[in-house]
């Protein structure tokens, strides 16, 4: 075999090897782009009739907590939030709070809970700041959604979360959030 032909064959082999190596064919089946990314601090439940987005408890100044969460009713029927039960992940004790203001979820619409202080007087004696709590949201018809949500300190980031229920005289009736709702299949 001639020297020129050997050099060409060697160069072609190196180029093919470099092309395969540089195209990331060896990254395997669990590349970072396949991993779920959650940029917010809150927790999500993306299955079921009512989905929860960015759920968290925000500490109030009087040893109580306010619930902040986006609620998406994926059904064709109106759903009403009837109660929220809060339990620590470790230890004992639970607290059940009923919404101070009506929380009616229209079909296929996102409702942002927390701006009006709908569930803002949750007794904080059984949970601890900086930990997680198990929340069970009970809806009309007996449907329940359970989630483990973080308990965060009140900072400027959470200034939109009301510490107390907003009285009906000082505010209009709570409305669904203005953002477009995601489709039920997403």
From TrEMBL:
It comes from the Bacteria. Residues 151-186 are annotated as: Disordered. Keywords: Signal. PROSITE patterns: PROKAR_LIPOPROTEIN. Residues 1-24 form the signal peptide. Residues 165-186 have a biased composition (Low complexity). This is Lipoprotein. The lineage of its organism: Bacteria, Bacillati, Actinomycetota, Actinomycetes, Propionibacteriales.
């Amino acid at each position: 075999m001639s020297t020129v032909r050997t050099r060409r064959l060697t160069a072609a082999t190196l180029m093919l090897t470099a092309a395969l190596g540089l195209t990331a064919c060896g990254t395997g089946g669990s590349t970072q782009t396949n991993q779920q990314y959650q940029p917010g601090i809150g927790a999500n439940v993306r299955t079921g009739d009512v989905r929860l987005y960015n759920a968290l408890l925000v500490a109030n100044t009087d040893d109580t907590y306010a619930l902040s969460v986006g609620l998406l009713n994926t059904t064709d029927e109106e759903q009403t939030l009837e109660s929220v039960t809060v339990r620590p992940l470790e230890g004992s004790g639970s607290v059940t709070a009923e919404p101070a203001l009506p929380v009616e979820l229209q079909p296929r619409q996102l409702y942002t809970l927390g701006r009006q202080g709908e569930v803002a007087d949750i007794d904080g004696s059984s949970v601890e700041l900086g930990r997680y709590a198990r929340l069970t949201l009970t809806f009309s018809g007996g449907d329940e959604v359970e989630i483990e949500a973080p308990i965060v300190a009140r900072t400027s980031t959470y200034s939109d979360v009301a510490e107390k229920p907003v009285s009906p005289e000082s505010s209009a009736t709570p409305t669904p959030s203005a953002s477009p709702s995601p489709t039920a299949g997403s």
